Amino acid sequence: MAVFTPVTPDQAGDYLMRYPLGDLVALTPIAEGVENTNYKLETTSGAYVLTLFEGRTDAASLPFCLGLTRHLAAHGFPTPSPVADQKGEIIGRLNGRAAAILNWAPGGWKRQPSDKEQYRAGQVLALLHLDAADFALERTNPVGPEAWAALAARCDGPAKGVDRKMLDQIKALLPRLAEPWSDPALPRGPIHADYFPDNVLFATNEHGQCDVGGVIDFYFGCTDVLAYDLAIALSAWGFDGEGRPMPSALRAFQKGYESVRPLTSAEAQALPGLGAAAAVRFTLTRLHDRIFHDPANLVTPKDPAPFFRRLDYWKAAETV
Questions:
Q1: What is the pLDDT of residues 231-274, one digit of tens each?
Q2: At what angle do helices 161-177 and 145-156 cross, to 10 degrees?
Q3: HEC readout, 193-205
């Protein structure tokens, strides 16, 4: 369950009065997701998502994150744009939380995407990088190399058993994994930074074909190395639930990406190291969430081990 801050229909109806969206018809909690509170909001004018931003999403980051989605949507990129209220604002407050209403994105995410869908998802990520290139705002990566060191330090005391073994290996890798961020040859720009299958919705298009209908959840979005975004996506799409590589999926996704935006030689050389960095980033955040899990939180922490296992693949790729 991903509703951390309950919203009643009356509260939603009152909030909705700020917007030119008609009257409330239905309010339905959205169970998926682990960061923010989401409801499907149906009104007399259509379907929307009502999001209340919880503790891990810094309210100061919302002008970047929501501004980026609005910028991309204006370029024709498939992402739900935030809706402005009658004063032109896209960020409000509801039940003590920053809140926003976004257009509803059609479709659903693929649990076992085909190679064709992997290829298309790669293309869409490259389109995101191209369409976002002229977005004016900047945001430092909230879970970049500096954050990894801080997460490792916080976990250092309480980590036991298998968590301790993972953490000790990660701590030894951190200085080397941060090296690509000092390389001026690697292109930078706005990135999604959480381009996982559950944030890419496939739907049937007007031609009767299955295509990406919406890329959602830009709340880790930031300004960073573009190839790192690809490395995150490959680490998310190209491995099974146990962290074992799926070579065909990895090839299809990267081929799709490079059909739109070919990597530079510097990016291609850096990609395995960036993949290892992505594996460490998600291992650390999941390790931290498991160690410091609040039993009152109904969201079960994700196992860090499958992302830790991805390190073996990326380290082997560095030697090829």
A1: 999 999 999 999 999 999 999 999 999 999 999 999 999 999 99
A2: 150
A3: CCCCHHHEEEEEC
Looking at the structure of the chain, the number of domains it has is: 2
pLDDT > 90 fraction of the chain, expressed in percent and rounded: 88
Quote the pLDDT of residue 291.
93
Q: State the average pLDDT over residues 134-145.
A: 96
The answer to whether 187 and 267 have CB atoms below 8 angstroms apart is yes
Bigger pLDDT: 209 vs 148: 148
Q: How far apart (Å, rounded) are the C-alpha atoms in residues 279 and 314?
A: 9
Among candidate residues 68, 103, 138, the one where a domain is terminated: 103
Angle 195-167-146 from CA coordinates, rounded to 5°:
60
CB-based contact 68:190 (threshold 8 Å): yes
pTM of the model: 0.95
One-letter amino acid at 167 equals L
Tokens 């309950």, located at residue: 6
Q: Which residues contact 220 (CB under 8 A, 6 or more apart)?
A: 142, 143, 192, 193, 194
Of the residues 103, 134, 167, which one is the last residue of a structural domain?
103
- Give dist(CA 87, CA 308) in Å, integer: 47
**φ/ψ of residue 101, rounded to 5:** -115, 130
Q: Quick one: pLDDT at residue 1?
A: 43
